[in-house]
Amino acid sequence: MWSAFANPHKFLKFSAVAAPLFYGAGALCILWGLWQGLWIVPKDEYQGGDIMRVMFIHVPAAWLAMASYSALAVASFVWFIWRHELADIAAKAIAPLGAVWTALCLATGAIWGKPTWGTWWQWDDARMMSVLFLLFLFLGYMALRASMDSRQKAARAGAILAMVGAINVPLIKFSVDLFTSLHQPASVITADGPKMAAVYLTPLLISGLGHGLLFGGLVMTHMRTEIRQRRIARLTAQALEG
Amino acid sequence: MNAAPIWAAFRQAFAEAWAGGAGALLPLGFLGGAAVLVPLGIGTESSILRAVGPGIIWVALALSSLVTLERIFQADAEDGTLDLWLQTGAPMAAIAAAKTLAHWLAAGLPLALASPLLALMFQAQASLDLIAHLGLYALGSLAFFFWGGVGAALSATVRRGGLLISIIALPLYVPTAIFGALAMTGGIGSDGAPMLLAASTLFACAVAPYAMAAALRLAAD
User: What is the DSSP string of A27-84?
Assistant: First the structure.
């Protein structure tokens, strides 16, 4: 059943419909979340007043940063084991987008941190450091792929690195967790259900969904481009031979 | 299992590391040079130097592993040695581990052995702690070399691969650097830090050889 997704033709058909849907739904969710976040929800003085409204970008960006590295690792694993070309195409598309959302998370975090905690950056804050190293993992992955001289080699080297990175993520996370953190403990997903007031939680979740859809749509567009580029390369090679 | 190729790989790597000019003195000179620049750069205040000293030594160890590892697999990939290793039938992971271990013995361990002297240069109190720290430096630098080896294997066929190794290996060095620093400064959460440092090093020794082997098979294609 899963291997049906590995067929580029089916993927092109599916994504021709799905990508625009993802963009539309994602834009609606993000815009609604921003409207709610910027104008409707009451400001929280404890979280720094109006600046806390950056949460509706910062938190989805953090979710996306983690989710995209997981997706990169899963795609790499699938490619390494089953050699489905589509998995490699997905991994190649995910990396730069994941890096962008990770950088967005760091930037909005710094903007939120300065007025609230009085610092742009705190070296012993566990989550800041984890996200920073996530960014380095993405950049290293992209640099390695870019330096390989063939597509096949780039795919193999990238997959090895993504998997080594993925098994190190828990260790990196644990080691930086030994440092103290300025961040509040988890407040959306906890054993007792969300601790956040619904007036904040709903726009946040919708905004997160919107970022996820936008990310999915962009990945599909990148993948479509890559599939067509490979097809052009193949056709050019055939034309040159014949 | 035929162990002869593994032993041969170890001797080859060890001989290379020693033979290339000044042998172990070269990385030692690198570490010493980097360390001596620090008081010139940040000022000679004793209390400051005492505070940053352990961190500077960790950074110098990490840098020296990156510098010396650049050629560890690249030369083998270029002159065909790598293809021969793959044909011996010995597990590639063991050969890669042997080569990395040899490099650590030639370039990592001497630096760790010199660490008490450097610590004294950074105004540390002379005590038995410095010997304990020597052990921590040796343990941590072993993890640096194994993760750096993964970067070296992945970039074995890349020109100017040294720059690539550093960006690949940097995030993997994080746990070692944090546990190492915690074990020495004795801050909050540092009780189990030496054990955690040992655990993360063992993790590197267990995982990295297989990643190196996969990367080297790629380099040989």
Answer: HHHHHHHHHIIIIISPPBGGGTBGGGGGHHHHHHHHHHHHHHHHHHHHHHHHHHHH--
The pLDDT mean for chain B works out to 85
Q: Could you give the CA distance from residue A231 to residue A213 in angstroms, rounded to a whole number?
A: 27
* CB atoms B179 and A175 under 8 Å: yes
Q: Residue A74: inside a domain, yes or no?
A: yes
Reduced to 3 states, what is the DSSP secondary structure of residue B36?
A: helix
Task: Give chain B's length.
Answer: 221
In Å, how far from its chain's centre is CA B49?
A: 24
Residues of chain B contacting residue A144, judged by C-beta atoms under 8 Å apart: 154-155, 164, 168
Nearest to B108 by CA among B207, B41, B3, B204: B204
Task: Read off the pTM.
Answer: 0.87
Give B208→chain A minimum CA distance, Å: 8
Mean pLDDT, range B163-179, rounded to an integer: 87
Looking at residue A76, what is its pLDDT? Answer: 94
Write out the residue range of the structural domain in which residue B74 sits: 4-220
Residue A232 pLDDT grade (very low, low, confident, very high; cuts 50, 70, 90): very high
pLDDT at B45: 81
| B84 or A179, higher pLDDT | B84
CB-based contact B85:B167 (threshold 8 Å): no
What pLDDT, on the 0 to 100 scale, is given for residue B149?
A: 93
Out of B161, B175, B214, name the one closest to residue A172 (CB). B175
What ipTM, to 2 d.p.? 0.84
Q: For residue B176, with 0-12 CB atoms within 10 Å meaning exposed, 13-18 middle and 19 or more buried, which class applies?
A: buried
Q: CA–CA separation, A158 vs A90, rounded Å?
A: 12
User: pLDDT higher for B110 or A6?
Assistant: B110
pLDDT per position as a tens digit, A208-220: 999 999 999 999 9
In a domain, A2, yes or no: no
Instruction: Tell me how close the Cα of A209 comes to any Cα of chain B, in angstroms.
Output: 29
The reply to whether A122 falls in a domain is: yes
Nearest alpha-carbon partner for A228 in A9, A3, A5: A9
Count structural domains, chain A: 1
**Can you give the residue range of the structural domain that contains A48?**
18-182+194-241
Q: Give yes or no for residue B44 having a pLDDT over 90.
A: no
In whole angstroms, give the CA distance from residue A140 to residue B171. 9
Count of the separate structural domains present in chain B: 1
